[in-house]
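Anyone up for a design puzzle?
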């Protein structure tokens, strides 16, 4: 048994599919048919030519800027690209083993680097670095040329990876994956959010998973206890069979909630919306009968492309979503990139602390053209559907005023062009930076609604990277400072007469839902896969009890006390939230 951190509830059982990670480039190894070899080799030739062109262009520009000596480094790379030994390694692997060209390149690079390392000479070590570099360049080109179907992880497998970045997962088809296990990441990292949105069990922080687990190993990924079993003995398998059966029964019983309202036992209605990213999520939100979309993360549509989507393309995408949810409102969050979400075609300067660097609204305000195109697209959709616009990572009143001014400017342009839109479109600010939480009342006065992004709020308030496994012990949703901050933001919004939603992962965390109700929250937005579970919690709570729980907790000064209090006094939880597995450790 390998211990990790549970991030997405449920249990998965199936063969492992280990994702090779080449410096952030996902390499899927696929068997190809004999008659597919020629087209793989043709792709290789195309990639070689593109790599040569890129290298020549870089050589030229470096020669101009830095001189001939620096530019000569690229000459070595150009020669390596056509090195007969390298080419033979790649082509032979592809044709003899009948594997896709990306896997052949990755394995040939490994082979050559291993051979160089064994020689142990400094010169060969440098040569190994050059081989790795051209390998990376070729893989980046090949992955870009790859059709999306080829990025499908084999159905029914459990994906095992070192780390999953949004730029990788955006292009991978994970729809038939049973579970996900990673070495790195944090509970609130985007990969963990993705696991919950896919509704697949997930365990992160599994040390050396990629080397300890092999393709085809039978895995049990327990996304409740945070454990992974590799080729477990029959006793463990039987125990999990039993557990899986009880989950299935529970899941079935939740289905009866789809058409019931999210109302507490004492009759208080709660607006229960969905967080979405890709079009598939909209279908889930619709099927689970969400009251609307509380957070549409638009990054996904940008991550899957090679260049900025045009205003027209954006307009079509947002229309599809809004049409599906009509007449329910869709809150469209403008592009929140920077930090761990980067666009290959919009490079940003390297930053020592990316999550403290240029991201979200700050980045957009520095690139008003990008923001303007998106705002125009959203406004155009607003003519026919109820949509709202939400600005991420707001940290000051000035920022939200500038952002609002750009909405006004986009509207003015459309009006001049005779294009219709809703001039009263609701504008919201995310409260996810501590300074915005402190100024929540003033920010609320400037907008129509607030949306509390607890994922970033916790990260910045507690100074604990949301994506870091090492920081997991410091990243505490039930930290008294987090709870007091949320309560004060809710109070500030109410005092200003503005709506407030909680849309971070806390909203769908069974340990937090009742507490949030107790703080006065009446609008939650959660991953579609968590809608029914959250509705179940709302329907089993009373506002009177939630209020008492919240009052008690707000008196407390430590996470431990709060956790104990929540565990003891919270309304009875459902089986998915409480079941823990006590199983024999694997030999
Ligand atoms: C948040 O920070 O809580 C949030 C909802 O935004 P994201 O997770 O996309 O950063
Ligand atoms: Mg955020």
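Challenge accepted. My sequence:
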């Amino acid at each position: 048994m390998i211990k990790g951190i549970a991030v997405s509830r449920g249990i998965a059982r199936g063969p492992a599919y280990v994702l090779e990670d080449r410096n952030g480039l996902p390499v899927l190894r696929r068997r190809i048919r004999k008659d597919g070899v020629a087209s793989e080799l043709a792709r290789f030739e195309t990639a070689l030519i593109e790599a040569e062109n890129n290298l020549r262009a870089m050589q030229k520009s470096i020669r101009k800027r830095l001189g001939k000596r620096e530019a000569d480094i690229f000459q070595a790379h150009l020669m390596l690209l056509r090195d007969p030994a390298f080419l033979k390694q790649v082509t032979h692997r592809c044709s003899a083993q009948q594997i896709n060209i990306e896997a052949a390149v990755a394995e040939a690079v490994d082979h050559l680097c291993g051979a160089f390392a064994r020689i142990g000479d400094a010169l060969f070590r440098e040569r190994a670095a050059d081989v790795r570099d051209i390998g990376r360049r070729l893989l980046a080109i090949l992955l870009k040329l790859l059709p999306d179907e080829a990025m499908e992880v084999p159905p029914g497998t459990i994906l095992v990876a070192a780390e999953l970045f949004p730029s990788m997962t955006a292009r991978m088809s994970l729809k038939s994956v049973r579970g996900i296990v990673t070495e790195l990441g944090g509970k609130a990292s985007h990969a963990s959010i993705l696991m919950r949105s896919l509704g697949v069990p997930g365990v992160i922080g599994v040390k050396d998973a990629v080397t300890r687990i092999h393709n085809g190993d039978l895995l049990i990924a327990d996304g409740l206890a945070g454990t992974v079993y590799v080729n477990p003995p029959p006793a463990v398998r039987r125990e999990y069979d039993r557990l899986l059966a009880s989950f299935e029964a529970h899941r079935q019983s939740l289905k009866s909630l789809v058409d019931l309202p999210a109302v507490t036992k004492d009759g208080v209605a709660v607006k229960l919306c969905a967080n979405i990213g890709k079009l598939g999520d909209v279908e889930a939100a619709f099927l689970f009968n969400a009251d609307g979309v509380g957070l549409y993360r638009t990054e996904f549509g940008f991550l899957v492309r090679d260049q900025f989507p045009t205003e027209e393309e954006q307009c079509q995408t947002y229309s599809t979503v809004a049409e599906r949810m009509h007449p329910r409102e869709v809150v469209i969050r403008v592009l929140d990139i920077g930090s761990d979400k980067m666009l290959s075609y919009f490079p940003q300067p390297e930053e020592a602390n990316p999550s403290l660097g240029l991201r979200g609204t700050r980045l957009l305000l520095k690139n008003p053209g990008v923001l303007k195109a998106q705002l125009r697209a959203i406004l155009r959709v607003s003519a026919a559907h109820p949509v709202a616009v939400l600005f991420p990572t707001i940290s000051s009143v000035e920022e939200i005023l500038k952002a609002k001014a750009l909405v006004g400017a986009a509207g003015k342009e459309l009006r001049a062009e005779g294009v219709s839109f809703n001039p009263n479109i609701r504008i919201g600010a995310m409260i996810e930076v501590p300074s915005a939480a402190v100024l929540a009342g003033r920010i609320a006065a400037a907008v129509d609604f607030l949306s509390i992004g607890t994922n970033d709020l916790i990260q910045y308030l507690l100074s604990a990277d949301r994506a870091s496994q090492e920081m997991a012990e410091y990243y505490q949703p039930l930290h008294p400072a987090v709870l007091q901050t949320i309560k004060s933001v809710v109070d500030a919004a109410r005092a200003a007469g503005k709506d407030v939603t909680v849309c971070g992962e806390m909203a769908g965390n069974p340990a937090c839902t009742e507490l949030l109700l107790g703080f006065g929250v009446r609008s939650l937005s959660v991953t579609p896969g968590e809608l029914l579970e959250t509705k179940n919690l709302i329907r089993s709570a009373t506002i009177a009890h939630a209020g008492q729980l919240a009052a008690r907790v707000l008196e407390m000064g430590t996470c431990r006390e709060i956790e104990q209090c929540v565990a003891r006094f919270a309304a009875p939880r459902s089986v998915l939230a409480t079941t823990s597995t006590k199983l024999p450790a694997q030999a």
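A detail worth pointing out: The CA atoms of residues 379 and 411 lie 7 Å apart.
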